[in-house]
C-alpha cells in the first residue's frame, strides 16, 4: 500500500513539473477571448423581435388554457349548485364530463408547457437562428485571429476578464452589420477586442 501511494506521489509530482516547465511556452501561444451572451441577447434588436413573436404565440396558448379553465370552473359550479337536485345517473354523467374537461386541460398544459412542450420548442425556434449566427461570428473571429479559446461569461465561469479580451461588442456589431445588409464576416481585428 505504501509503495502504491509513493508511486502515485511521484506521478503527481512529475505531472506538476511538466505543467510548470511547459507553461511559459504554452502561455505564449495561448490566445483567449470571451463574450457575454446575456448582454448580446439583451442588446441585440433581433432578439427583442424574436421575443415579441414568441410572446404573441405563447399568449394565444395562454388564452386557450384560460378558456379551458373557465369551462372547468363553470361546470364545477354548476355541479356544486345543482348536484343535490340531480339524479345519481345525471350527477355521474356531469362528474364524468367534468373529469374529461380536467384531463383535457391537464393534457393541453403538459403538451404546451411541459418538458419538451411546444413553448420550449417555440423558444428554440425563435432563438436558435440567432444563437447559430452568434456561434458563426465567434468561430470566424476565433479561427481568423488565432484564438485558442473563446468563453461565454454568461454561464458564470469567468470570474475576471481583461476588457481587451471581451469580444461581445464585436459580435453585436457584426450581428447589426449583417442585419443592415453587410457582408456576414467577422469584424476586422482590433487590439485584442473592443473596449
Q: What does this protein look like?
A:
This protein is mainly alpha-helical. Among the domains are: 1-29; 51-121. The chain is 71% helix and 4% strand. Strands 1-2 form a two-stranded parallel sheet. The longest helix has 38 residues, at 45-82. The two termini are 56 Å apart. The model is unreliable at 1-26 and 184-195 (pLDDT under 50). Residues 1-27 form the signal peptide.
Ends: how far apart?
56 Å
Oligomer: single chain
Globular, elongated, flat, extended or rod-shaped: what is the shape?
A: rod-shaped
Number of helices: 6
* DSSP strand count: 2
- Approximately how much helix is present in the residues? over 70%
Structural class based on helices, strands and sheet pairing: mainly alpha
As residue ranges, the low-confidence spans are 1-26, 184-195
Q: What's the SSE pattern? A: HEHHHHEH
Q: If you average the pLDDT, what whole number results? A: 79
| Main β sheet profile | 2 strands, parallel
Widest sheet: strand order? 1-2
Strand content: under 5%
Cα-atom Rg, whole angstroms?
Answer: 29 Å
Provide a short characterization of the protein structure.
This protein is mainly alpha-helical and 195 residues long. 71% of the residues lie in helices and 4% in strands. It has helices at 2-29, 37-43, 45-82, 88-113, 118-144, 168-179; strands at residues 32-35, 149-152.
Strand-helix topology:
Layout: H1 2-29, E1 32-35, H2 37-43, H3 45-82, H4 88-113, H5 118-144, E2 149-152, H6 168-179
Organism: Eiseniibacteriota bacterium
Coiled coil: 51-78
Protein name: OmpH family outer membrane protein
Amino acid at each position: 500500500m505504501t509503495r502504491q501511494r509513493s508511486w502515485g506521489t511521484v506521478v503527481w509530482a512529475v505531472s506538476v513539473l511538466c505543467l510548470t516547465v511547459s507553461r511559459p511556452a504554452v502561455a505564449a501561444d495561448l490566445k483567449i477571448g470571451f463574450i457575454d451572451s446575456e448582454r448580446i441577447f439583451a442588446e441585440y434588436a433581433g432578439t427583442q423581435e424574436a421575443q415579441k413573436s414568441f410572446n404573441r404565440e405563447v399568449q394565444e396558448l395562454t388564452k386557450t388554457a384560460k378558456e379551458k379553465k373557465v369551462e372547468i370552473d363553470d361546470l364545477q359550479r354548476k355541479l356544486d349548485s345543482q348536484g343535490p337536485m340531480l339524479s345519481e345517473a345525471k350527477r355521474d354523467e356531469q362528474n364524468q364530463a367534468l373529469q374529461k374537461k380536467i384531463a383535457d386541460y391537464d393534457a393541453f398544459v403538459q403538451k404546451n408547457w411541459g418538458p419538451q412542450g411546444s413553448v420550449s420548442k417555440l423558444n428554440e425556434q425563435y432563438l436558435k437562428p440567432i444563437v447559430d449566427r452568434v456561434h458563426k461570428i465567434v468561430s470566424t473571429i476565433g479561427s481568423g485571429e488565432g484564438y485558442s479559446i473563446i468563453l461565454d461569461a454568461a454561464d458564470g465561469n469567468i470570474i475576471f476578464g481583461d476588457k481587451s479580451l471581451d469580444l461581445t461588442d464585436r459580435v453585436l456589431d457584426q450581428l447589426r452589420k449583417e442585419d443592415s445588409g453587410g457582408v456576414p464576416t467577422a469584424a476586422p481585428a482590433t487590439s485584442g477586442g473592443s473596449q
